[in-house]
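Supplementary Methods, section 5.1.

A reviewer requested that the exact input to the structure prediction be made available. We therefore reproduce it here, unchanged from the version used in the analyses.
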Amino acid sequence: MSLATWFKRAIAGGASPRLQALLVDVVAYLESRPTNEEIVPKIVGKVIGESELAAMTALSMLERRGITRHHFGVYCGKTEVPLDTFDDLSDVRDGFDCKICDKRHSPSEGTCKVEVYYTVDRDSLGTFAARRSAA
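The structure derived from this sequence is encoded token-by-token as follows.
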């Protein structure tokens, strides 16, 4: 089954064994991380041996269950220092000043990067993990 078909089934609510295994792996990863850590899909994918897209899919599914929440971080293209954070991509403006490199950065000019990251609701995660292990 292609990843696109698998993703469509996941959104429709179908539970394939691969999807269940992916969710278990991502939840285990989330449980192992410190509170308030930013969860980056590409790192999750590397740690659990999956693609960034698979990790993003799982994190998005967990967001629909109230366990994760996405955010958009803007980072200096030179120093990678965080410049700002937004909950909606449409709120990202086109101009950020970096106090470290003393330059003005713009996503449209490619002088900074915008990346999605997730935060975790620990209470919802604990409830989900408890239900999962009881099943």
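The mean pLDDT is 88. These observations are discussed further in the main text.
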